[in-house]
What does this fold into?
Amino acid sequence: MKRYRFIISLLIILIPTISFGQLFPSISDFNGEIERVVEKRYGKEVYLFNRLTGIYMPRCYSGWKYVYHLDTNARLIRRTNFFKGKVQADYIYKFDSTEKVIHKREIVNDTVTNHNGDYIEDEFLLDSEGKIEKVNIWSFKSTDSLKKIIAVEKDVQYDSLNNIISFYRTSYDRNGNEINGNLYVIFYDSKSRVAKVEEKAIGTKPILVETENNGKTFKDIPISEPELLKEWIYHYDPKGLLISYTLKHYGELHKSDSNGGKDYKLFFKYDDKNNWIKTYHQLGNSRKRLVAKRRIEYK
It folds into this structure.
């Protein structure tokens, strides 16, 4: 089943509480018999000499720490977020499956956030061969016992090796109205490793327009063909481990952000059991900056 189960872990690395594309290719998994993983994030604003504005110190520990607990199959079952030693959020993970459906839930398990019992659920619908044909992503709020659809991934296409090569993702607002839709196209190398992923706008695309007050805002305009928005390019070492990837931005929406559309690169360093223990990022041609360190406790 694992070859059909693609979960991106980039946002577990950088933004642990946000789900991205449930069919997006996996970047790195936990390997081996692991008891727990302690991850620290780096980079913070430091105020010196009574300055009114802070100085960003990329080498400084940010105060954020994430503790991951795994089962005997190296599958995540709990994650606790700390800031300066205090619990900020706690999550548990539940999995169940039948021949036709797989469910994965990330459940809030604390009293700190006032969202205890809330969860995000990924519902994978399988075809007769056990391949994913659709994913429904749900949000449940315990305060009003409402379960709402927030995204759908569908029209999943496979190659002759059963690798996912494309799918559509549609997002919805809190009222169930469609927000946007994107097409994802996945390319593989000769060893069936992900080589590149493209994200394309479908139906409409955002453009930058001037307002009456000489300001700028975004407006969606219709497009007849899918248009490239982002591109991820993957790089491997001789052992087949992902050592870095590059994210390229296209279109007015991305080139107008604070980074000016510069390429974003993420680098990984591994231990002898092929689990990453350090990750660095680089924007454009700037210096590499440490993002996170992991201490892995093996059984």
In short: The first strand starts at residue 34 and ends at 46. The chain has two helices and 18 strands. The radius of gyration is 20 Å.
